[in-house]
Amino acid sequence: MLNEFKVLSEAEGSCAGIERRGGKSPVLVICEHASRTLPEAFGDLGLSKDALESHIAWDPGALAVARGISSALDATLVYQRFSRLIYDCNRPPEAPGAMPEKSEIYAIPGNQGLTSEQRQARTEALYIPFHNAVRELIAERKARGQESVVVTIHSFTPVFNGKPRAVELGILHDADSRLADKMLTAAADAPLYKTERNEPYGPADGVTHTLILHGVSNGFRNVMIEVRNDLINDDAGQGVMADYLTGLLQQCLEG
């Protein structure tokens, strides 16, 4: 690294991308794993090109689906502009997975043996401002009397540790299952995808951090959506999934 405590340069800008800041929908779309871009200071973290393009660096297709939903609903979207390999914004600073030393089959040399100062620098550059940006959006919405419904968008691999995954769409929740329950019922009534509750991950895996931070803690309806990434690996698949999820959300928010 050029400077072990410098995470982002001024030229790289904010870690949080925001679209449709004044969107009229109650839905607030969040995409924490939107990008595989590494800050320049970190080089390639000692990883191969294949690794840096794989699911360990980002959630392929998730941002495109999130943008499709945002556009269709006129919903505000906030997304992380840098790879979760530097900091996974769906994990608190104390979690091992926040700055993983290993992800699936890949050891991550640039994340090995980080000092407390290096970890803090990443936290202050990526985690804190990203979630502060979400908080600011929520405060703005509250000030103008706008409801907030927190919807996070993710994707997952068809095969994990050599085992195929049959589930195509996961509807995840933590303590508050109000929206998830409705979406699961609606999905069962129109079963376009094999849809499961809290699959392929769930609260026990630590994946509901953002939901708790911005949804559960505020009493807002909230849901995390996981899409199998082979279904959204091109424009057509992304469009179909965005349309389907938009319809599902509209139905369940109005019902």
Polypeptide structure, described:
The protein has 255 residues and is of the alpha/beta class. It has one domain: Aminopeptidase (3-Layer(aba) Sandwich), CATH 3.40.630.40. Helices cover 33% and strands 17% of the residues. The strands form 3 sheets. It has a 7-stranded mixed beta sheet, sandwiched between helices. The chain has a two-stranded antiparallel sheet with strand order 4-5. A two-stranded antiparallel sheet has the order 7-8. Strand 4 (102-103) and strand 5 form a beta hairpin. It is globular, with a radius of gyration of 18 Å. It starts with 15 loop residues before the first strand and ends with a helix. The relative contact order is 0.18.
SSE inventory with pairings:
Elements: E1 16-19, E2 27-31, H1 49-53, H2 62-73, E3 76-80, E4 102-103, E5 106-107, H3 116-143, E6 149-156, E7 159-160, E8 163-164, E9 169-172, H4 178-189, E10 195-197, H5 209-215, E11 222-228, H6 235-254
Parallel strand pairs: 2-3, 2-6, 6-11, 9-10
Antiparallel strand pairs: 1-3, 4-5, 7-8, 9-11
Helix pairs in contact: 2-6, 4-6
Biggest sheet character: 7 strands, mixed
**Biggest sheet: strands side by side, in what order?**
1-3-2-6-11-9-10
Name given to the CATH homologous superfamily: Zn-dependent exopeptidases
- How many structural domains are formed by the residues? 1
Residue windows where pLDDT falls under 50 for at least 5 positions: none
